[in-house]
């Protein structure tokens, strides 16, 4: 907030300094205290400059990030801020770096050594968006080759209060009786799954729960993708063809999602 017109428009006095809150993650504890538009003037009692720095060694200043990164996860951070011209104080617990991201930042090589999680339903193969997934599908230059909508979710997708914690993608459509006519629906690009039967999909585990919760009276599974493409699968036909499809494509199970969500094929 180094521009004096901006500071004056926000009602700051000449001797005041601080930073403007532009965004607060919904799922972090800071959301309980701060909101967009607040002006933070002090952190743990230390004055914050208009450039977002705090005193360091004698005659030196350092980025405000130092106040956060020098603490541990779950440590408390105190803030003094102004909202609508009124001075307020509060504190909140720090979350892990990047906890709010839909696509978590991990050691890519570590993830490559793990067995990828997936869910197969009626010939539709769903996976979680991750860097290893992008590298596998689009190569080493995935940031240039992958669709913009996937890159956008990778860099800017955030968890929500409603429970969305992963980006579930339709990775592939396998040849099956239930997918006839859909094989070329998405070409070679993965598509983001948004809804199943009108209900938002929050994660791969959530998708499994939604499928398992479908009653016998529900004839169709309606999958809606991010470009509003609708894929409809006959639920009973998908169940009847399940074992044949696993054998045809040499897949050991219809799903691999942690320990409790695995359904193996019959011998």
Describe the structure.
- This protein is α+β, with helices and mostly antiparallel strands.
- It has two domains: 4-93, Pdz3 Domain (Roll); 108-264, N-terminal domain of MutM-like DNA repair proteins (Alpha-Beta Barrel), CATH 3.20.190.20.
- It has helices at residues 4-9, 65-69, 108-113, 131-138, 142-145, 148-156, 204-212, 235-240, 242-248; strands at 19-20, 39-43, 46-47, 53-55, 61-63, 76-83, 86-93, 118-121, 124-128, 168-173, 191-196, 199-200, 220-225, 230-234, 253-256, 263-264.
- The strands form three sheets. Strands 8, 9, 10, 11, 12, 13, 14, 15 and 16 form a nine-stranded antiparallel beta sheet that branches.
- A hairpin with a 2-residue loop joins strand 8 and strand 9.
- It is elongated and about 75 Å long.
- It comes from Chondrus crispus (Carrageen Irish moss).
- Keywords: Hydrolase, Protease, Serine protease.
- Pfam families: PDZ_3 (PF17815).
Which descriptor suits the 3D outline? Answer: elongated
Helix content: 10-25%
Secondary-structure-derived class = alpha+beta
Strands, count: 16
| Discrete helix count | 9
The radius of gyration over CA amounts to 24 Å
Briefly, what CATH class of the largest domain? Alpha Beta
Count of spatially separate domains: 2
Mean pLDDT: 88
Please report which band the strand proportion falls in: under 5%, 5-15%, 15-25%, 25-35%, 35-45% or over 45%: 25-35%
**What series of H and E elements makes up the topology?**
HEEEEEHEEHEEHHHEEEHEEHHEE
Q: Which CATH architecture of the largest domain is right?
A: Alpha-Beta Barrel
InterPro entries: DEGP_PDZ (IPR041517), DEGP_PDZ_sf (IPR046449), PDZ_sf (IPR036034)
Keywords: Hydrolase, Protease, Serine protease
Pfam family, one: PDZ_3
GO molecular function, one term: serine-type endopeptidase activity
């Amino acid at each position: 907030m180094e521009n004096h017109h901006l500071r004056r428009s926000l009602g700051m006095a000449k001797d005041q300094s601080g930073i403007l809150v532009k965004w607060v993650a919904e799922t972090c504890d800071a959301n309980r205290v701060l909101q967009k538009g607040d002006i933070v003037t002090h952190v743990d009692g230390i004055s914050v400059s208009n450039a977002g720095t705090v005193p360091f060694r004698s005659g030196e200043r350092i980025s405000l990030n130092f106040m956060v990164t020098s603490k541990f996860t779950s440590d408390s951070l105190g803030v003094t801020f102004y909202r609508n011209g009124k001075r307020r104080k509060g504190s909140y617990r720090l979350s892990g770096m990047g906890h709010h991201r839909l696509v978590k930042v991990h050691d890519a090589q570590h993830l490559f050594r793990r067995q990828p999680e997936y869910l197969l339903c009626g010939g539709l193969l769903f996976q979680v968006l991750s860097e290893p997934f992008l590298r596998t599908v689009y190569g080493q230059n995935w940031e240039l080759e992958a669709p913009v909508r996937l890159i956008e979710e990778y860099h800017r997708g955030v968890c929500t209060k409603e429970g969305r914690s992963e980006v579930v993608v339709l990775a592939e459509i396998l040849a099956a009786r239930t997918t006839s006519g859909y094989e070329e629906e998405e070409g070679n690009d993965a598509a983001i799954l948004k809804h199943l039967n009108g209900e938002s999909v929050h994660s791969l585990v959530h998708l499994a729960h939604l499928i398992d919760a479908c009653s016998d009276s529900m004839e169709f599974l309606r999958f809606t993708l991010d470009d509003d493409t609708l894929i409809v699968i006959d639920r009973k036909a998908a169940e009847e063809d399940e074992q044949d499809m696993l054998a045809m494509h040499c897949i050991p199970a219809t799903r691999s999602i942690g320990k409790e969500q695995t359904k193996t094929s019959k011998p």
